[in-house]
Specification:
The protein is an alpha/beta fold and 787 residues long. The protein has 4 domains: 260 residues, Glycoside hydrolase, family 3, N-terminal domain (TIM Barrel); 176 residues, Glycoside hydrolase family 3 C-terminal domain (Rossmann fold, 3-Layer(aba) Sandwich), CATH 3.40.50; 134 residues, Galactose-binding domain-like (Jelly Rolls, Sandwich), CATH 2.60.120.260; 110 residues, Immunoglobulins (Immunoglobulin-like). 22% of the residues lie in helices and 27% in strands. It is built from 17 helices and 38 strands. β4, α4 and β5 form a beta-alpha-beta unit. The two termini are 52 Å apart.
């Protein structure tokens, strides 16, 4: 019996989810339930439980800064092996959207502002994951790079830009053999992506994608439109628009029976690929040992760390006994390792902080540690009692002691049941003020909530508009109330939450403590004493979120105050930017060096210590352009119009092209990075190889230590004024030696979308190729090739 021989209800059941992470499968065809878990920084808890742990990987931007497909392939394989051990069939990743601006709240998940770099590295990640028998679900198709009103916004984009820029990484993912693709929340040209027949026709018919198209969670809105367009699987469950509703649409003749069969067959094919269909087997895994895994994660973190500048050669730091090193900044003691999205990962062991790692890395030195200022965002309480009350009950059905005070539930709520039940949650904790002054207590969630302090009601929170529940949950919106506490004073803090039945529930309780007045003075005093200073600044846990975009790239005011004071006290200050996006660096001339490690994963602290001490090189090159001011970024000031349309035509060209041909002069161009040695491109030449072009490059390490560099090739078609990245190669060489690299450029490097003709063409004539070490390299080699 074939899939098409099964009855309509049976086939339709395969197109829907069972719960928040499980698809129904097709038992009649030997396919059990299939498990989908969020990524791409690691395996997210099935129940959003902070007690479930996993390996926390470097972020997409960190991996992209390595410009190293082989390394990214290995990281994908690490995640795939772990997913296989945990019984996960599909990981939602990689994120192939493009951070057009640094203001996107989710940009840290993405690879690069450049579609070619994103596509190459995304394909490597996919191959590494799927070689372990776990499916990749490339997301989010397409133009899901703005968080503001993401479920309703509409992208207006030219066909050429859509094809050449935003769809290009997904085309690379299909060429790499991705087994599934996740459709985005937003609309493109008026149609939601899971209902957008034009987009899904490109995916399935033009590119030949034979995998499964999956809706982003709760993104499906219409049974007939989505099924006809080409959506195969609605997630999560239980079924709303697919499953029984799809069976009814087929029986009514609104959806072709063959379309339902195609969807079911694709789900069976996915099960076969991951070894879950009866009689099929997945490829054997090749899991790393514990020491090998640590080394890979540290290698990746260092390879993605970009040295923006190093005035006077302060790096690597001298490690001679008797020297004094001041390790300062809030992120030195509480680093930010990931964004505050639904895809948060709890590391298996507490990550070593930068301060702890530097103390261990400089055993002969005096290492002085101080935060300098307090964290600026919401801090969860370290231990709370969580009680869940089913509707109509006065006694809790469950009482748990939990190590956090912020919770999200797509599934079972302790003592209550599913999120659609309602019920009541109570969080209780005893809080002792470490410093006297005005504290803010923060309250939020998906129901009507009340905050009590020592039994006295202090604030309330109304249940959100049902249309914005997912946004409220993703943003962790709260209301703040001020409470004056003396140092050492202990108070009982209780949050009462009456949940409104819905598809997701959240409760948030937290605080912001006042900064001790002496924090800044302590840090400045230590800086003045030290031979060298490492100042770690950047994001906190609330800086990068789903459903919320940033408004500035500037560091928080208290961090800028700390930076200026420390730089004035010690000229040998190295600033480390622990951030998942571009940061304003107008102050960079006041410090000796600037490093950008992005969100570098659970080995961030040790990897940073090895980079600063010279054990490893900061191998990264910028996958994003750093502008001189926020106003210089593409699309600055362009917002949704009254119809929630975002006009990309007012933004393009984005990425490196925005800073060319009379555009703004960047602070640090795309592809820039220094490392610990110096390089020169000695020769570059191109030769035809059938339909391809081979670019042969010889590079010389002109410095005094071994290191690595990235050779970049940019192309410009006849009549164009801006170049685009078309190829690159990472090279390694000992000090004083030369190394060769050959970069193959296929037809795709030269093609352009012809909108009137509706097809790809290669413009005839001389195409300019530029071999460079960044998009603004003043010593680039140029050559022309005829096409």
């Amino acid at each position: 019996m074939t899939v098409g021989d099964l009855d309509v209800e049976t086939r339709a059941a395969a197109t829907a989810g069972v719960n928040g992470w499980t698809a129904h499968g097709l038992p009649e065809a030997g396919v059990p339930e299939l498990t989908f878990l969020d990524g791409p920084l690691g395996l997210v808890s099935r129940t959003m439980d902070e007690r479930d742990t996993a390996t926390l990987l470097p972020s997409g931007t960190s991996l992209a800064a390595s410009w190293d497909p082989d390394l990214v392939h290995r990281v994908g394989g690490l995640l795939g092996a772990e997913a296989r051990r945990e019984g996960v069939d599909v990981v939602l990743g990689p994120n192939l959207n493009l951070p057009r601006t640094p203001f996107s709240g989710r940009s840290f998940e993405m690879f690069s502002e450049d579609p070619h770099l994103t596509g190459v590295l995304g394909a490597a990640w996919i191959r590494g994951l799927q070689e372990q028998g776990v499916g990749a679900c490339a997301k989010h198709l397409v133009a899901n790079d703005t968080e503001t009103r993401r479920q309703a916004m509409d992208v207006s984009v030219d066909e050429a830009d859509l094809r050449e820029v935003y769809l290009a990484p997904f085309e690379a993912a299909v060429e790499a053999g991705a087994w599934s693709v996740l459709t985005a929340y937003n609309r493109v040209r008026g149609e939601h992506c899971c209902e957008n027949a034009a987009l899904l026709r490109v995916l399935k018919e033009e590119w030949g994608f034979d995998g499964v198209t999956v809706s982003d969670w709760f993104a499906t809105r219409d049974t007939v439109a989505s099924a006809r367009a080409g959506l195969d699987l609605e997630m999560p469950g239980g079924p709303r628009f697919f499953g029984p509703a799809l069976a009814e649409a087929v029986r009514a003749g609104d959806v072709e029976d063959s379309r339902l069969t195609d969807a079911a067959q694709r789900i069976v094919r996915l099960a076969e690929r991951v070894g879950r269909r009866e009689g099929s087997t997945a490829p054997p895994t090749s899991a790393l040992g514990a020491a090998e895994q640590v080394d890979l994660l540290r290698t990746a973190a260092a390879a993605g760390t970009v040295l923006l500048h190093d005035d006077g050669g302060v790096l690597p730091l001298r490690t001679a006994p008797g020297r004094t090193l001041a390790v300062l900044g809030p992120n030195a003691v509480v680093p930010c390792l990931q964004g505050g999205t639904f895809a948060k990962v709890t590391p298996r062991t507490r990550p070593t902080t930068p301060a702890e790692a530097l103390v261990a890395a400089f055993p002969g030195a005096e290492v002085l540690v101080a935060p300098g200022c307090a964290p600026s965002g919401l801090q969860p309480f370290g231990e709370v009692v969580l009680e869940g009350f089913a509707p109509g009950t006065s006694e809790p059905g469950a009482t748990q002691v939990r190590p956090t005070s912020t919770f999200v539930w797509f599934g079972e709520i302790p003592g209550i049941g599913g999120p659609g039940v309602g019920g009541r949650v109570r969080l209780s904790t005893d809080f002792t003020a470490e410093v006297g002054g005005t504290h803010e207590l923060l309250l939020g969630g998906t129901g009507d909530a009340t905050l009590l302090v020592d039994g006295e009601q202090r604030s309330t929170w109304p249940a959100p508009d049902p249309a914005d529940v997912m946004g409220v949950v993703a943003r962790a919106d709260t209301v703040a109330t001020e409470v004056h506490l003396e140092a050492g004073q202990r108070v009982r803090v209780v949050g009462e939450f009456d949940l409104v039945p819905g598809r997701v529930q959240s409760v948030t309780l937290g605080y912001r403590a006042p900064a001790p007045a002496e924090l800044l003075d302590q840090a400045v005093a230590l800086a003045a004493r030290a031979d060298d200073v490492v100042l770690v600044l950047g994001d906190d846990r609330n800086a990068s979120r789903e459903s919320a975009d940033r408004t500035t790239t500037e560091l928080p005011a208290e961090q800028l105050q700390l930076l200026r004071a420390v730089a004035a006290a010690n000229p040998r200050t190295v600033v480390v930017l622990d951030a998942g996006h571009q940061v304003d660096t107008s102050w960079a001339g006041d410090v000796a060096a600037v490093l950008v490690p992005w969100y570098a994963g659970e080995q961030f602290g040790p990897a940073l210590a090895e980079v600063l001490s010279g054990v490893r090189e900061p191998g990264g090159r910028l996958p994003l352009t750093f502008a001189r001011s926020d106003a210089d970024y593409p699309g600055y000031g362009v917002e949704l119009d009254d119809d929630l349309v975002l006009d990309y035509r007012r933004i393009e060209p984005a990425g490196p092209a925005h800073f060319q041909a009379g555009g703004p002069v960047p602070a640090y161009p795309f592809g820039h990075g220094l490392g610990y040695t110096t390089w020169r491109v000695r020769t570059a030449q191109a030769e035809p190889d059938g339909d391809d072009v081979l670019v042969h490059v010889e590079v010389e390490n002109t410095g005094e230590r071994a290191g690595g560099d990235v050779v970049q090739v940019y192309g410009r078609a006849p009549g164009e004024t801006r170049s685009r990245l078309v190829g690159f190669a990472r090279v390694e060489a000992p000090a004083g030696s030369k190394v060769g690299a050959t970069i193959r450029l296929t037809r795709a490097a030269f093609r352009r979308w012809d909108t009137p003709a509706g097809r790809w063409t290669v413009p005839g004539g001389a195409h300019l190729l530029t071999v460079a070490r960044s998009a603004a390299d003043q010593h680039a080699h140029e050559m022309k090739v005829q096409r």
